[in-house]
Task: inverse folding
């Protein structure tokens, strides 16, 4: 299907899919579902629930709810969806706060912007050697000893900020930004 001129490009980041043997969502099936929902030029990236697509103008929150509902109906997985535009992803990549080495960097794409007081409280915590910087609805994370031994897990970050999110490693973030920019 040729993209319509009124389409916008979106990147959907599904929360909590394909974790070990839980919440299985096949990427081929997810692409098919998005196409059935009127999305165009649908591409997935790796099996962790990353979808780049074009869709007619839509309200972000309504589109996220529609994608979540459809995923639950089709696959039985209630995966909340963080949506980002190509410009937003490009800003995330440009604003990497931890220097040139991105090998231990991750981003938690938050489902909404956290309250400023919660962000300030998190910034005051001693998490060394880990680092976190919240910018808008994104939390940059640096795990110098690896994610497996992290004290600031995704679940703990969500509790501290009072907002759910979905974490991606830097390689995935950069690749999704490239894919979105190519649309």
Result:
């Amino acid at each position: 299907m040729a993209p319509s001129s009124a389409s916008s490009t979106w990147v959907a980041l599904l929360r909590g899919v394909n974790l070990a043997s839980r919440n299985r969502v096949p990427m081929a099936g997810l692409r098919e579902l998005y196409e059935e929902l009127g999305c165009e030029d649908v591409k997935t990236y790796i099996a962790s629930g990353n979808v780049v697509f074009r869709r007619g103008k839509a309200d972000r929150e309504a589109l996220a709810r529609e994608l979540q509902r459809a995923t639950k109906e089709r696959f039985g997985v209630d995966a909340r969806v963080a949506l980002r535009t190509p410009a937003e992803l490009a800003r995330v990549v440009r604003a990497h706060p931890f220097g040139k080495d991105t090998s231990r960097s991750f981003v938690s794409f938050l489902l909404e912007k956290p309250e400023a007081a919660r962000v300030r409280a998190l910034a005051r915590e001693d998490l060394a050697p880990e680092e976190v910087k919240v910018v808008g609805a994104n939390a940059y994370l640096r795990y110098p000893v690896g994610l497996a031994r992290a004290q600031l897990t995704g679940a703990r970050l969500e509790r501290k900020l009072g907002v759910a999110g979905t974490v991606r490693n830097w390689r995935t973030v950069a690749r999704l930004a490239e894919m979105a920019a190519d649309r």
Notes: The helical segments are 27-36, 60-75, 86-94, 116-124, 154-161, 170-181.
